[in-house]
Structures are given as structure tokens and as C-alpha cells.
Design goal:
Helix content is about 0%, strand content about 35%. The protein has one helix at about 115, and strands at about 15-20, 25-30, 60-70, 80-85, 95-100, 125-135, 140-145, 155. A hairpin with a 6-residue loop joins strand 1 and strand 2.
Length: about 160
């Protein structure tokens, strides 16, 4: 829809704040994953690792794969993806979505063919497990994938799965 659903956060490293007097912060960089520049944001609200196991889904939810964490055109197994459903929809860490798409791959996303696309059955392409839940969206990891995933793929969280 073009609506903003959130912001991507890239972890650049780990720092220990030594002093935060005045309007400046002095920190010791303990570990860096990428270049860290003056002016980069410091926060303590995100864990560096997620230890999540699958949990039984308590509700039926249909969502959308809105973006990938990596700057790529497609996603696949073991990649992080963003989902447009969150805590307000009843999601919990460990919930699993089935990734679905319908069509024959040739007409996907072409508006003139959408009516015809509705005649195709939903096919399962893989599975996403939610690892971090936010208010209106969440972060998931693709645990299974048989095809490349694209933005806009349908996600179905089946109750009892």
C-alpha cells in the first residue's frame, strides 16, 4: 500500500557507555559488525541474539511479507523478513506462518491479471518463524523455502499449527 510500517534497524556493534554527561555520550566499542560513525544511534532495547522455539498458534492471521532485512530483491531460507502483523494481532515469538503464493509465476503482480489469479489455488512456498514481536509488525526468519520469496507474499498463521 505504500504505508510506512516501521523502520529497519541494523546492528553495527556493541558498545559500553562510559559517560553521558552534557549532551554527549562517551562509549567504548567492544565489538563491531560494520563501520561505526560519529552520530550513529545508541540503544539498549534490542537483544543481540534471539533464542526462540516454535509455539502453537492460538489464532488465524493472514499477513504480508513486507520487506527483507538484507538489501536484496528476493529472500530465501535463513534470511530475516519483516511481517505486517504484530502484538496487536495476537502474535508471539515462536509463532509460524506458512508462506503462500498463487498463480503460475508469469503474471504475479500484474494488475490486469489479478482477476484471473484469484482462480489459482494458494501454494505453500515455505515457512517463517517469528523471532521478535513489536506492536504492529514483527521480525521473522525463513525456516523453509522452496522458491525465492518476494515482497507481498501472503503469510498465513494457521490456528493450532
Amino acid at each position: 500500500t505504500g504505508k510506512t510500517v516501521g523502520w529497519k534497524v541494523v546492528h553495527l556493534g556493541i558498545a559500553k557507555v562510559l559517560n553521558s554527561k552534557y549532551d554527549f555520550v562517551k562509549a567504548l566499542i567492544l565489538k563491531s559488525y560494520q563501520e561505526i560513525y560519529r552520530g550513529d544511534l545508541i540503544t539498549g532495547i534490542f537483544p543481540m541474539m534471539y533464542d526462540v522455539g516454535p509455539v502453537r498458534n492460538e489464532v488465524d492471521i493472514v499477513g504480508t511479507l513486507v520487506d527483507f532485512h538484507a538489501p536484496t530483491r528476493f529472500a530465501g531460507q535463513l534470511q530475516y523478513v519483516y511481517i505486517d502483523r504484530g502484538r496487536v494481532n495476537g502474535l508471539k515469538a515462536g509463532n509460524r506462518f506458512l508462506i503462500q503464493r498463487r498463480g503460475d509465476g508469469l503474471w504475479y503482480g500484474k494488475p490486469k491479471k489479478l482477476k484471473l489469479m484469484r482462480k489459482f489455488p494458494w501454494e505453500r512456498l515455505g515457512e517463517v518463524m517469528v523471532v521478535a514481536v513489536f506492536e504492529e509488525n514483527s521480525l521473522g526468519v525463513v525456516t523453509q523455502s522452496i522458491k525465492e520469496l518476494i515482497r507481498g507474499d501472503r503469510l498465513w498463521m494457521k490456528k493450532g499449527y
